[in-house]
Amino acid sequence: xxxxxxxxxxxxxxxxxxxxxxHPFSIATIVFISISISLYEYTKHLSQKRIFGxxxxxxxxxxxxxxxxxxxxxxxxxxxxxxxxxxVMTSKEKLGIILLIGGMSTLWGIKHxxxxxxxxxxSLNHFFGMFWIVSPLICIFNAQLYFIKENIGQRIASEMNPxxxxxxxxxxxxxxxxxxxxxxxxxxFGKLFGRHLLAPxxxxxxxxxxxxxxxFFSLLASWWLAPFFSxxxxxxxxxxxxxxxxxxxxxxxxxKWKRLHDVKDSGRFLPGHGGxxxxxxxxxxxxxxxxxxxxxx
Length: 297
Description:
Elements: H1 2-20, H2 24-44, H3 49-71, H4 75-84, H5 91-113, H6 123-129, H7 131-157, H8 171-193, E1 197-199, E2 203-207, H9 208-225, H10 233-260, H11 276-296
Antiparallel strand pairs: 1-2
């Protein structure tokens, strides 16, 4: 337990600070490190080093391309212009396309990590399963780029220096804090009150009481944090519901994947927590719907 607390105290503020820096390279660094470590943990248990290399190279290419697109016209804008004969494509329209593609590929990836025993050794299944990790994290990266652009627009409207790198309050941080609160509530309620198993054939340590704590802390945190992030209460409630429901489904999905491969923890990157993938599992499924609510609702 002490290791778990120390890891959270050290890494938590670093992640928060990285999210509050309005520069593309800050979120690019966080996302690329997260993808690389998570893919390593995913492929290590599958003995698929080639898929790790492909996933990291693909992620690096997309991140690099999106940073270029951040400063000038990119791939998606080019096709938008030629298909719709429009010279203008807003950041919100582009992000909507990315989130739609990301959501579909995430579900496609989850489908392939929860395959049957007969196809456990299929490299194709493992390759498609990679998108369960890559797609939502790339979507988070693009959402943060959108929030950074919005912040710059607000600074220009307020006649402030648009290229200042002062910290800013990003809605992405709101979502991350709600997700962390849910994880914390699930652990606390599970340890203090856990009596009835939630899904014993998938995860013998998760309890119904922990699930209730997860949901309660998500709702409580979203309600309390909403005014600080200028998030409407209806948005905060929807985000909390996505975190409470899809977050726990994502957690159970990773637990099912680990059980299929006789793995207890995805890795040892985070002392007291296990692997990084063990900490990102709930985020992988709830992030894209939450971003849609925070941006479009």
